[in-house]
Amino acid sequence: MNIEIIKVNDLEKSMWSGGTTTQIFIRPENMTVKDDFNYRISQASIEGGESTFTFFNAYSRYLVILEGDVFISHNDEEYQKLEPFQKHSFDGNIKTKSKCEGRVIDFNIIYKSQLGKINFDIINTKENKKIEIASNTFIYNHENTSKISIKNKEYKLNSREIMLIKNDENIEIEVSGLLIYGDILL
Question: Could you check whether 9-115 and 117-185 share the same CATH topology?
Fold first, then answer.
């Protein structure tokens, strides 16, 4: 089993039309969003005002608001408010705009849907919860400290850290905290 913990605050930020983005990881490695990548996970800020999201033809997208209030519109339809820590999915090939009054922080997953899928969920529990994970999994912790137990070994994820787990088989783990976790089935 291979476990890697990445501190999001230590990663390089880049600009996009509406704020900054921090690429947490991209596969294949050493690619950029301008390349023909398979999937990318990032955290971004949306600054106040109206922004237009970058088009990603042939990709599916998930968005989770971590902090702040934002409204989103697809294909010039009416704006809808996105609630914090709820999943929002959309096609990367459609016109998408956002508007907000203040700074918003979000978590993004972009992947080629023809290669497979990324299943993810959000957990918010103070008690240990058992979950089954696939052989290629990420667990993101946004605030406070979360605990993760894998094969009787305890790990702690601090604020804005992500754990990448590569394993030969599906396994059951225990988690507690406010986490976004996902199985990469590509």
Answer: yes
Listed by start position, the domains of the chain span 9-115, 117-185
**Residue 70: which pLDDT band, with cuts at 50, 70 and 90?**
very high
Name residue, tokens 């993760």. 148
Give the Cα separation of 141 and 8 in Å (integer): 10
CA 135, CA 37: separation in Å to the nearest integer?
Answer: 20
Which tokens is 47 given?
Answer: 């600054």
- 9-115 adopts what CATH topology? Jelly Rolls (2.60.120)
Homologous superfamily assigned to 117-185: Jelly Rolls (2.60.120.10)
CA dist., res. 144 & res. 116, Å (int): 32
* DSSP secondary structure letter of residue 29: T
**pTM (2 d.p.):** 0.92
Please report the pLDDT score of residue 182 as a whole number: 95
C-beta of residue 20 within 8 angstroms of C-beta of residue 26: no
